[in-house]
Specification:
CATH superfamily of the largest domain in chain B: Thiamin diphosphate (ThDP)-binding fold, Pyr/PP domains
CATH topology of the largest domain in chain B: Rossmann fold
Strand content of chain A: 35-45%
Radius of gyration of chain B: 24 Å
CATH class of the largest domain in chain A: Alpha Beta
Helix content of chain B: 25-40%
CATH architecture of the largest domain in chain B: 3-Layer(aba) Sandwich
Helix content of chain A: 25-40%
Order of helices and strands of chain A: EHEEHEEHEEHEEH
Shape of chain A: elongated
CATH architecture of the largest domain in chain A: 2-Layer Sandwich
Distance between the termini of chain A: 37 Å
Strand content of chain B: 15-25%
Largest sheet of chain A: 5 strands, antiparallel
Oligomer: heterodimer
Distance between the termini of chain B: 57 Å
CATH topology of the largest domain in chain A: Alpha-Beta Plaits
Structural class of chain A: alpha+beta
Largest interface: A-B, 26 and 26 residues
Low-confidence stretches of chain B: none
Number of domains of chain B: 3
């Protein structure tokens, strides 16, 4: 059965590292639902959060193929552990009457969405949350008319104080803290 | 560091000195505009042997042949643009067959990168999906580290090709720095004792076990032999694994798959436990995957975790080096007594196709029967390749060089050149078809230039035989663009034009007469065996069919 799985990838911040990763996904026919990249607390290394769609076997193939890339330091499949994830969206909602304007603002309040731009006939909101919250917000706004939306894609971290990444499905590799891995690199 | 050389004055000198420092003695290449500083520096290093081929594809396949025969990294060099893109087929071939290869290319100067400069090609981009890794070196000071890392990556874990692209001005840039320094690589997987426990438990219960060994076990031949005998398990070697387990051993069942032996395919279909080591269950090996080894519990040993359960679901996954896993499994061995199973495999082994008195199969058998245990046989791709795989008997690894995964026509001849240079003490024999030979025939000049004593046999049936066989079987004899007979060159005259000795044999007695003279000729030598053109290769599993549906004998009216 297809499901969405969140994968964190620590990579060397080398030229073309993003291309290496997306090219691998493309040629093996894996679907990327979203992908975000950012710097980490360690200079020279980036973290990617990739949401992958596929059955268990596909997802495990994705992790293993990612691990083979030279610039990939660590792959964490978050379906195997507790994690927090968030996404940020900007969305422009049509407000063509005073009545609608009040109602839209009320919904935004309920979702703790911030107004970041006010137009004559539209309001632009910034919303942060997990996938459920974002989807619910967009569903509520849809009847008023969503003019434009941009999403950052999901970002994720393991819960708790442990930055250890767990060993993988195939279980042969002892887990190592990112710190140690980078020191060795 | 080689003390006789001074501090390298520029990037090009740093490149050669680093290669020498890493034990590289021979490179295959072809010069051109964007790699000229490297060729200029080359003449300062007489200890480095550069083999000039006549096409970059010849250089890369020769480097592959070098690597496949010796187990050491093969190195090829080309200029930017067309030089670099001419390497692409060979790099892909090396990726598919896990060959340790270093490809070095020149590129336009840094300020021209990305501007569609003359002879510019984004070769690191082009080769991204077909290399283990690649480097675009932007400073001369980075060259030693790039070379060191590239060699490390290409040769460690599952081997493969690595490309280093060096812009021309980087080759000329003054070198400031040291030749030392490399980042340590990701650690290789540790063998898990739990997975070995599981495998041992399964094997102990096995009544009809079989081992399948692929090219990944190339360095573990002795350990595989010990393992098979300790447990008393019959062994199948894939196309890439031929020679890892001796053909002369009674436990050997042959090659599996599309043109696999009756014994191999039946053993797979009847096995209750299948122990696969260093193979990737390619579709040519498995046939219809849903019906592959339908009764077997599968133990898969591979150093590349991504190969485990990629195609065939492994019940037990052992992520490890083949040698280490074989040793661990041998140390826990219990000799299995399954006399009925062993007898069955021996009965199957006695079933093989008999070839017509004069045929490609017969010619290839006659050649293979004359090979000494240390001789290296390279083949091209097609019918002759499958026939040689079926008929040759290898008792040692790295004696059989063939393009397995990519199936590259044009591979065989230059690969034999690389093998001859890597192992000058043995005979390097090439078997090619009339079609594939012409894809890299220009390398005859390379033989002449260096007097490399490669023995080439062209099995000339005037057809692209394998394609013709498929047209006969699956396209109602519609011979579309496969007949070469009207315009093939006179191969004996072609050899003569390059001052290469050549023989022609048009029947079995003629071949008998010239065979040893050809094989023992002191220099390069070509043999054209003119064979009838209507023969097919059997057994054959039709594409998409299961191994159980193998056509074990030529159908009525079809010759083999």
């Amino acid at each position: 059965m297809d499901n969405k799985v969140v994968i964190s990838v620590i990579v060397r911040d080398e030229p073309r590292v993003l291309t290496r990763i997306t090219s691998m996904f493309a040629r093996r026919g894996f679907n990327i639902n979203s992908l975000s990249v950012g710097t980490t607390e360690h200079p020279g290394y980036s973290r990617m959060t990739i949401v992958v769609e596929g059955d268990d076997r596909t997802v495990s193939q994705v992790s293993r193929q990612l691990e083979k890339l030279e610039d990939v330091i660590k792959v964490t499949d978050h379906s195997l552990e507790k994690y927090v994830d968030r996404e940020l969206i900007l969305t422009k909602v049509k407000v063509d009457s005073a009545e609608n304007r009040v109602e839209v603002r009320q919904i935004a309040d309920d979702f703790r969405a911030r107004i970041v731009d006010v137009g004559r006939h539209a309001l632009t909101f910034e919303v942060t949350g997990d996938e459920g919250k974002i989807t619910a917000f967009l569903e509520q706004m849809r009847p008023f008319g969503i003019l434009e939306t941009m999403r950052t894609g999901r970002i994720a971290l393991t819960r708790g104080s442990n930055v250890d990444v767990p060993s993988h499905v195939y279980g042969d590799e002892p887990s190592k803290a990112l710190e140690t891995m980078i020191q060795q690199d | 560091m080689d003390e006789i050389h001074a501090q390298p004055k520029n990037g090009a000198h740093a490149l050669w000195q680093t290669l020498i420092q890493h034990g590289i003695t021979t490179v295959f290449g072809y010069p051109g505009g964007a790699i000229m500083p490297v060729y200029d520096a080359l003449t300062s290093y007489p200890e480095m042997r550069h083999i000039l081929t006549r096409h970059e594809q010849g250089a890369v396949h020769a480097a592959e042949g070098w690597a496949k025969a010796s187990g050491k990294i093969g190195v090829c060099i080309a200029t930017s643009g067309p030089g670099a893109t001419n390497l692409v087929t060979g790099i892909t071939d090396a990726m598919m067959d896990s060959v340790p290869l270093l490809a070095i290319t020149g590129n336009v100067a840094r300020f021209l990168l990305g501007t569609d400069g003359f002879q510019e090609a984004d070769i690191t981009g082009i080769t991204m999906p077909i290399t283990k890794h690649s480097f675009l070196v932007r400073h001369a000071a980075d060259i030693p580290r790039a070379v060191a890392e590239a060699i490390k990556i290409a040769t460690s874990g599952r081997p493969g090709p690595v490309l280093i692209d060096i812009p021309k001005d980087v080759q000329m840039e003054a070198f400031v720095g040291s030749l030392e320094g490399v980042r340590p690589k990701k650690p290789l997987p540790q063998l898990s004792s739990a997975s070995i426990d599981e495998a041992v438990a399964l094997l102990k219960q096995a009544k009809q076990p079989v081992m399948m060994v692929g090219g990944g076990a190339m360095e573990a031949s002795a350990e595989i032999i010990a393992l098979a005998h300790a447990w008393n398990i019959p062994v199948i070697t894939t196309l890439m694994g031929l020679g890892i387990f001796p053909a002369s051993d009674p436990l050997w069942l042959g090659m599996p798959g599309m043109h696999g032996s009756v014994a191999s395919n039946r053993a797979i279909s009847n096995a209750d436990v299948l122990l696969g080591i260093g193979l990737r269950f390619d579709d040519r090996v498995t046939g219809k995957i849903a019906r592959f080894a339908p009764h077997a519990t599968i133990i898969h040993v591979d150093i590349d975790a991504a190969e485990i359960s990629k195609l065939v679901r492994a019940h037990v996954a052992v992520r490890a080096d083949a040698k280490e896993a074989a040793l661990a499994l041998t140390s826990r061995a219990v000799k299995l007594e399954n006399p009925e199973w062993i007898a069955k495999t021996l009965e199957w082994k006695s079933r093989f196709v008999t070839h017509s008195k004069w045929s490609a199969g017969q010619a290839i058998k006659m050649i293979c029967d004359q090979l000494r245990p240390d001789d290296i046989l390279s083949t091209d791709v097609g019918q002759h390749q499958m026939l040689a795989a079926q008929l040759a008997r290898f008792d040692k690894p790295r004696r059989w060089l063939t393009s397995g995964g990519l199936g590259t026509m044009g591979f065989g001849f230059p690969s034999g050149i690389g093998a001859a240079l890597a192992e000058p003490q043995v005979r390097s024999v090439v078997i090619a078809g009339d079609g594939g030979f012409q894809m890299t025939a220009q390398e005859l000049a390379t033989l002449t230039r260096y007097q490399i004593p490669v023995k080439i046999a062209i099995i000339n049936n005037s057809f692209l035989g394998m394609v013709r066989q498929w047209q006969e079987m699956f396209h109602q004899n519609n011979y579309s663009e496969v007949y070469l007979g009207d315009d093939n060159p006179d191969f004996v005259k072609l050899a003569d034009a390059y001052s290469i000795k050549a023989f022609r044999a048009s029947d079995a007695s003629e071949l008998e007469r010239v065979l040893l003279e050809w094989l023992d000729y002191p220099g390069p030598c070509l043999l054209e065996a003119v064979v009838p053109n209507e023969h097919g290769v059997f057994p054959m599993v039709p594409a998409g069919a299961s191994l159980q549906e193998s056509i074990e004998e030529p159908p009525t009216g079809v010759k083999a």
